[in-house]
Structure formats: C-alpha cells, structure tokens
Amino acid sequence: MTDKTDNTDWLDAIKWNEDGLIPAIAQDVHSQRILMVAWMNREALQLTVAESRAIYWSRSRNRLWRKGEESGHVQRLHELRLDCDADVVTLQVEQLGGIACHTGRQSCFYRVYRDGAWHSVDPVLKDPARIYEAPHE
Amino acid sequence: MTDKTDNTDWLDAIKWNEDGLIPAIAQDVHSQRILMVAWMNREALQLTVAESRAIYWSRSRNRLWRKGEESGHVQRLHELRLDCDADVVTLQVEQLGGIACHTGRQSCFYRVYRDGAWHSVDPVLKDPARIYEAPHE
C-alpha cells in the first residue's frame, strides 16, 4: 500500500455521531438540485472515495448500500465536501437514470410547502415496481 | 385564528428524531449552492414559515436561533420542501450579506476532498471577528 491509501487523517477529521454516522447530501452535478440525504459510516465514506460512487450505510437494512445496486441508479462521484463542523458531507454526483428517489422521482424532495400543507409537485418518472425489477447497470 | 393557522397536519407529517429535531438544508435560491445544514424543532419550523426566514434550533445553545440575529446574515425563505421519508427539509433561501458560515465564508462546505485530505478552497469574505460585532439588521 502507498502512503496515500494508508492515510486516514481525512476520515479521523470527521465528527461521526454517536452511531458512527454522518449525513451525506447528494446534489446533481449538472442541475445542482438536491437529490437525497442518506447516512455514511466510515467504511461507506472510504469506499465512496475509493470507488468514485455514492455508497451509503442503510440504517434500516444495517448494511452498506451501494446506491444503484438494485435500481441501476448509481451516483458517480464528482466532488466531496465537508462542512465547517465536520459533521455533514455533500456529494456532487452524476445521477445515472436521472432518478434518485425510490418513488421513481428525480429527487426525494418532491413535496413543497404551500398554504399549510405539503404538495407533491414533481412527476414520477418511472413506476417504482419497474425500477426494482430492472437489470442492474 | 383562521383554519389555516390552526392546521398543524403539515407539522404532524414530519418524522422528528428522538430529540424532536429534523435536519434542514439551506440552499442559495440564486446559485443553488448548498450553504449550511442545521436543525429545527417543531417550533423553529413553524416560525420559519410564519416569518419567511430560516429559524433553527441551536443544539449547543439549546434555544431558537433566528439565523442572522447576531450577524445580520438573515436567510429569507423562498421555498420549503420535505423528502420522501419526511425526515429532512430543504430551504431555498436568499442569503443576506452573501455569507452563511460563521467562518465568514459563503458556504459552510468550503473544504474539498482531494488526494487523501480536506482542502479549504473558498475565500473568507469577512473576518468572523467583524461579523459578530456588526449591528443587527
């Protein structure tokens, strides 16, 4: 191994929460739209950099989640940033398939507040039932 | 009071965490840059809508934090969105003063990962010591 891969100072710099996680915000590198927020543990973040694709920690499944592993909707990493408190990261990603949300929409943030209620304003681009039967990319 | 202000269904729809909080991502309405992430409790979110400006819950100070109350760097609300899991909100904001970060930078996400390290790549626009002695707006 090289010095470069041995160096984990950049991971040690992060303030992981009590569960060893950090929120990760994925933003579309082209449109700058915020696509989704998920969690990463140390291994997930390290692998995200190593493989140049978003790899999260699924709290519900309690395992690494290579975004797109079932849907094909892989997120290719273009840039990774850390905030001033070292407790949130942002990822500029290229969203393969143009769909980040499990509901079949471009973004998970498809509900807008207006007049005392949340309104779904973005179209479903693909039926979720079809997303998860699709062959992997 | 009107029916509209009595209605809190939109707040009940949110999955607050065990501390009664939700992460809020502020994004610049003009540049679409992600400016910061902070927390809101129920009252903070309600007031954010009522006053059309970002009001967070400061976990360190354990009180409401009207963004800009000391710095003048108020965030005027343009749009509020909720994600599919109802546990993160995004705010499109107009950032007064052009500075969201307490370090005097436009965004809190001023560190980029490159070659095994975080690199500060964004300029300090105003000395933090001067930000917090400025008169309130």
Automatic annotation (TrEMBL), chains A, B:
<dbReference type="GO" id="GO:0000287">
    <property type="term" value="F:magnesium ion binding"/>
</dbReference>
<comment type="pathway">
    <text>Amino-acid biosynthesis; L-histidine biosynthesis; L-histidine from 5-phospho-alpha-D-ribose 1-diphosphate: step 3/9.</text>
</comment>
<comment type="pathway">
    <text>Amino-acid biosynthesis; L-histidine biosynthesis; L-histidine from 5-phospho-alpha-D-ribose 1-diphosphate: step 2/9.</text>
</comment>
<feature type="domain" description="Phosphoribosyl-AMP cyclohydrolase">
    <location>
        <begin position="36"/>
        <end position="110"/>
    </location>
</feature>
<feature type="binding site">
    <location>
        <position position="101"/>
    </location>
    <ligand>
        <name>Zn(2+)</name>
    </ligand>
</feature>
<feature type="binding site">
    <location>
        <position position="108"/>
    </location>
    <ligand>
        <name>Zn(2+)</name>
    </ligand>
</feature>
<dbReference type="InterPro" id="IPR026660">
    <property type="entry name" value="PRA-CH"/>
</dbReference>
<dbReference type="GO" id="GO:0005737">
    <property type="term" value="C:cytoplasm"/>
</dbReference>
<keyword id="KW-0028">Amino-acid biosynthesis</keyword>
<keyword id="KW-0460">Magnesium</keyword>
<keyword id="KW-0479">Metal-binding</keyword>
<keyword id="KW-0378">Hydrolase</keyword>
<feature type="binding site">
    <location>
        <position position="87"/>
    </location>
    <ligand>
        <name>Mg(2+)</name>
    </ligand>
</feature>
<keyword id="KW-0963">Cytoplasm</keyword>
<dbReference type="InterPro" id="IPR038019">
    <property type="entry name" value="PRib_AMP_CycHydrolase_sf"/>
</dbReference>
<comment type="similarity">
    <text>In the N-terminal section; belongs to the PRA-CH family.</text>
</comment>
<feature type="binding site">
    <location>
        <position position="84"/>
    </location>
    <ligand>
        <name>Zn(2+)</name>
    </ligand>
</feature>
<comment type="function">
    <text>Catalyzes the hydrolysis of the adenine ring of phosphoribosyl-AMP.</text>
</comment>
<feature type="binding site">
    <location>
        <position position="85"/>
    </location>
    <ligand>
        <name>Mg(2+)</name>
    </ligand>
</feature>
<feature type="binding site">
    <location>
        <position position="83"/>
    </location>
    <ligand>
        <name>Mg(2+)</name>
    </ligand>
</feature>
<dbReference type="Pfam" id="PF01502">
    <property type="entry name" value="PRA-CH"/>
</dbReference>
<dbReference type="InterPro" id="IPR002496">
    <property type="entry name" value="PRib_AMP_CycHydrolase_dom"/>
</dbReference>
<dbReference type="GO" id="GO:0008270">
    <property type="term" value="F:zinc ion binding"/>
</dbReference>
<keyword id="KW-0368">Histidine biosynthesis</keyword>
<dbReference type="GO" id="GO:0004635">
    <property type="term" value="F:phosphoribosyl-AMP cyclohydrolase activity"/>
</dbReference>
<dbReference type="GO" id="GO:0000105">
    <property type="term" value="P:L-histidine biosynthetic process"/>
</dbReference>
<protein>
    <recommendedName>
        <fullName>Phosphoribosyl-AMP cyclohydrolase</fullName>
        <ecNumber>3.5.4.19</ecNumber>
    </recommendedName>
</protein>
<dbReference type="GO" id="GO:0004636">
    <property type="term" value="F:phosphoribosyl-ATP diphosphatase activity"/>
</dbReference>
<keyword id="KW-0862">Zinc</keyword>
<comment type="subunit">
    <text>Homodimer.</text>
</comment>
<comment type="similarity">
    <text>Belongs to the PRA-CH family.</text>
</comment>
